[in-house]
Amino acid sequence: RKSVVRITTGSQALDELLGGGIETLCITEAFGEFRSGKTQLAHTLCVSTQLPLHMHGGNGKVAYIDTEGTFRPERIVPIAERFGMDANAVLDNIIYARAYTYEHQYNLLLGLAAKMAEEPFRLLIVDSVIALFRVDFSGRGELAERQQKLAQMLSRLTKIAEEFNVAVYITNQVIADPGGGMFITDPKKPAGGHVLAHAATIRLMLRKSKGEQRVCKIFDAPNLPEGEAVFQITTGGLMD
Ligand code: ADP
Ligand code: MG
Q1: Predicted pLDDT at 56
Q2: Fewest beta carbons within 10 Å, which of 13, 101, 110, 191?
Q3: Is there a cis peptide before residue 128, judged by omega within 30 degrees of 0?
Q4: Measured between alpha carbons, how far is 170 from 131 in angstroms, rounded to an integer?
Q5: What residues have their beta carbon closer than 5 A to ion ligand 2?
Q6: Strand pairing partners for 208?
Q7: How far is Cα of residue 127 from the mean position of the Cα atoms in its chain?
Q8: Which of 74, 208, 212, 235 has the most ligand 1 atoms within 8 A of CB, as the residue to mutate?
Q9: Alpha-carbon Rg of the chain, whole angstroms?
């Protein structure tokens, strides 16, 4: 039996909201508007995953699938320094791939699974999980096929999480809620419909606050305590 590992986000408040950090063996989704901090959390996790277990890390390598071209290796350097790690060693342990179509994204996952069988990985990032689907299936009448392919991709991610005891961190976009109206104060919801809602074990809703301050809330989980975590985005990654 594999035992769950919890990886620090860099923010104690956010870790507490998550019950200790981002968990292995399942999918954690973050959604929120542009600049809400989804990619910055990904960068911080790239480093913290490599910390030893007693420092709330995962003692493992990281796989990063980037569909939007927003990974910045130079951002890793000050984050590694903040955690007292050697930046070059940290960068060497991040396996990075840019995906250009949803099929490419899927094939990258197949290749990664082979790699994970040989080397100790503890985190897989897909930033964003849905962007390419929204481009590749943008036509009217393509929604059913899109959702079917998305389900296939998510089931592959779940399998990787369970087989290799890896934390899967995916990002998602917000879309206008067509059911929203003048009586709904925030007519925004995560993209991906029921398919994504069922695949993600934990859904984090991020929003901007003052300056570099951000707020995270757990979305749609009646079994988890209500609450918010406030954190800052800094040069050294997420912090309280
Ligand atoms: P998302 O992926 O949700 O669109 P990001 O994670 O890219 O958003 O967040 C971008 C924000 O992160 C920027 O608007 C800025 O506020 C903050 N940020 C990015 N880099 C730094 C940095 N080096 N120092 C402080 N804040 C930063
Ligand atoms: Mg982003």
Answers
A1: 98
A2: 110
A3: yes
A4: 11
A5: 38-39, 70
A6: 214
A7: 7
A8: 212
A9: 17
* Site residues for ligand 1, CB cut-off 6 Å: 32, 34-40, 212, 233-235
Q: What is the pLDDT of residues 182-207, one digit of tens each?
A: 555 566 899 999 999 999 999 999 99
Q: Residue 35 CA: which ligand is closest?
A: 1
Nearest CA-CA partner of 52 in 14, 8, 111: 8
Q: Which of 42-56, 174-188, 206-220, 225-239 has the lowest mean pLDDT?
A: 174-188
Give distance in angstroms: CA of 125 to centre of ligand 2: 12
Relative to the CA of 40, which ligand 1 atom is closest? 6
Q: Ligand 1 centre and the CA of 37: distance in Å?
A: 6
Please list the alpha-helical segments (H only) found in the chain.
12-17, 38-48, 73-82, 87-92, 102-116, 131-136, 143-164, 193-199
The overall average pLDDT reported for the chain is: 94
Which of 78, 190, 73, 169 is closest to 124 using CA atoms?
169
The Cα 239–Cα 12 span in angstroms is 7
Q: Please check whether residue 156 is in contact with residue 147, taking contact to mean a CB–CB distance below 8 angstroms.
A: no
User: Rounded to two decimals, what is the model's pTM?
Assistant: 0.96
Determine the residue type at 183.
F
CA-nearest residue for atom 16, ligand 1, is 212
Pairing mode, strands 213-218 and 228-234:
antiparallel
